[in-house]
Structures are given as C-alpha cells and as structure tokens.
Here is the input.
Amino acid sequence: MDSQQLEELRKKHYNASVVYLNKVHSDLLIMRVKPDFPKPAHVPGQYTTLGLGYWEPRCPGCQEEQIKPEDATRLVRRAYSIGCPILDGDRLVDMDKADWFEFYIVLVRESDKPQAPALTPRLFLLEQGSRLFMGERITGHYTLDPVQDGNTVLFLSTGTGEAPHNYMLWELLRRGHKGRILAACCVRYRRDLAYFDVHQQLMKRFPNYTYIALTTREADTIHNKVYIQDLITSGRLEEELGMPLDPKNTHVFLCGNPKMIGVMEKDPKTGERVYPKTLGVIEILEKRGFKADQGSKERGNIHFEEYW
Ligand SMILES: Cc1cc2nc3c(=O)[nH]c(=O)nc-3n(C[C@H](O)[C@H](O)[C@H](O)COP(=O)(O)OP(=O)(O)OC[C@H]3O[C@@H](n4cnc5c(N)ncnc54)[C@H](O)[C@@H]3O)c2cc1C
Ligand SMILES: NC(=O)c1ccc[n+]([C@@H]2O[C@H](COP(=O)([O-])OP(=O)(O)OC[C@H]3O[C@@H](n4cnc5c(N)ncnc54)[C@H](OP(=O)(O)O)[C@@H]3O)[C@@H](O)[C@H]2O)c1
Here is the structure.
C-alpha cells in the first residue's frame, strides 16, 4: 500500500486521538484518548473498544503475525476497561470535566491462542497525537450498581485488571462512601504497579481505604508467591480490613486473569457446573457464603470481569 492509501484508510476509520501517553515501561502504558465525538454516557467499571488497522506496524520482539489478505485493510478491535487517574495533584480528579478516557494497557508479546496478539503490539507504537479508533458504545455490567453506602467493597485484580477498579474507587471516594474499601492488585514485578504512588496518597487521605500490592516474580517473592487467593485464605485480607468478611454487607469485584477469578465451568460429560481445576477466588468465597453473579439478571455479591 502506498502512503496515500494508508492516509485514506486512517482518515476513514480513525475517530480519536491520543492526548497523553505514559510509557510506564517498555511493556506497560497509560494512555488518554480523546474521541472526535461527544463523550458517550457511561458509568465507572464499563468498557469500550479501541482499534487500529492491520496495516499499522507492530513492535519488534513480538510473536510473528500472518495477516490474511482480506484483513489487510481492516481494523483489529479489542475491549478496554475505562480507567482513571483518581487524583489530580492532591485532589480527586474532576472526571466530569475530562474530554478524554484513560486506558491502562499491557503489551502481550506472545499469545496463548494460535493467532498472534494483534492489537497491543500496534498500540505500543503510538505516540502523543497519534490517531486510532475508539468505539462510541461504552457498555458492561461490571459497575457499582449493587453497592449501597456503608457496604464493604473489595477490588481484587491482577495486572491491568485494576483499571476499572480505579474508576470505581474514584466514584466511591467522591461520593463519600462510608463503608470500608480495600483494593489489592497482584503483578509480576513492582514496576508493573503504575498507580502505586496514587494509592499510597489515597490511603493517607481516606482512612476507610486500604491498598495491598502483591508481586510474584521479584527476588524476594518468586519462591513465596502470594496470589489474591492466598491473601484471602491466609486471613491477611481480613486482618487488613480490620473485620471478618461478611457476605451480608460486602461486594467483591474481581478483574484480570481468569485463573484468579475462577468462574464455574460446564463439565463436558455431565453438563453440571463445576469449579475450575485451579482454585480461584469465586470458589473460596462461595464456600464462605458469597454468591457470584450469574449473568446480568442473577446478581450475587461477587462481580467479575475476565480479560480473556
Ligand atoms: C471487557 C474487557 C476489558 C478489557 N480491558 C483491558 C484493559 O483495561 N487493559 C488491558 O491491558 N487489557 C484489557 N483487556 C484485554 C484486551 O481486550 C486485549 O485482549 C489485550 O489488550 C491483548 O490484545 P491483543 O490483540 O494484543 O492480544 P489478544 O489476541 O487479544 O490476546 C492474546 C492473549 O493475551 C493474554 N492477555 C490479553 N489481555 C491481557 C491482559 N490485560 N493482561 C494479561 N494478559 C492478557 C491472554 O492470554 C490472551 O489470550 C480487556 C478485555 C475485556 C474482555
Ligand atoms: N509483566 C511484565 O513485566 C511483562 C513483561 C513482558 C511481557 N508481558 C506479557 O504481558 C502479558 C500479561 O502479563 P501480566 O503480568 O500483566 O499478567 P498475568 O500474566 O495475568 O500476571 C499478573 C499476575 O497474576 C498472577 N497469576 C498468574 N496465575 C495466577 C493464578 N492462577 N491465580 C492468581 N494469580 C495468578 C501472576 O503471577 P505469576 O508470576 O505466577 O505469573 C502475576 O502476579 C503476558 O502476555 C506477558 O507475556 C508481561
């Protein structure tokens, strides 16, 4: 394709611009995207889509990709939770005035699926001012809808799964939520905790808020991994909360790696719903009186968003 054809494709498909880009490290970024269209109505916890053309270049060091000829002029789109910086200086950011959306994205270099990762190797070559596609529809049931003032709220995540939690946390703090709020995030390395300092500041300002960071591949943690599941089973989560986990007034939000979440699966032989082989948070909590959402109509007190 010549450069004029590329420009035409970009003009036709792209409807948003990168207005801020923070490369936390080579494989992790925080990006703010300003759409050309008016900001769609949405609530914290929801997601939209981002997209780039298959014609865009990919970062070096990623799994090789075979593009089908019919895809050459198409967009690759993926879902992304809307995140939030939470603070602007020393006060809560005014998200109602922001004309951008924040995204928190990890570079997937190798996929566990047969197809190579298509979008993130392209997103990681964007710069401030770059153009891209953003979906006009913001959707999702992973929201604060079921939470009442005074409830205990737990936000448990792995990796970039903290993105929707940051936006929900901001909403609870600005509402003056009276219950306890605890967020825990489990990542490979300390450098993967892009919002660490923000959470430290929040803990100083909001006595009902606690943040726990877990790493699993640093020299001092690799042989002694504490997953989100271990945080609960060891009793540390309740210790930090300062009270026992009470299913009657607690809502738990789980986001990120599906193995941490552990949604029940259908047994192919019996058709019965069974917990996955790897112990996830849902199994641990359901055995302690909690109930996971089953679809958007049968709501429990465990809510989850699986990223893959
Ligand atoms: C509702 C929803 C919201 C999402 N929000 C975010 C978000 O805010 N930030 C974000 O980084 N990703 C998010 N994702 C994942 C995102 O949609 C893409 O799958 C991801 O960015 C990789 O895209 P890709 O095309 O490069 O690879 P894909 O082909 O989409 O994925 C390849 C493989 O990468 C792994 N993978 C995908 N996403 C992640 C991840 N976030 N962390 C670790 N491993 C992963 C999985 O093993 C997956 O099978 C979300 C997914 C869903 C369903
Ligand atoms: N993070 C990086 O520095 C980095 C660098 C290069 C590429 N990548 C790529 O980025 C993608 C995402 O990596 P990521 O680190 O953000 O996400 P991730 O692989 O989901 O890991 C996030 C956290 O979840 C933990 N985890 C793994 N299995 C679990 C389970 N069964 N239950 C509970 N927790 C579990 C991980 O611990 P473990 O240590 O046990 O995995 C890690 O602490 C991958 O494709 C990866 O190859 C990441």
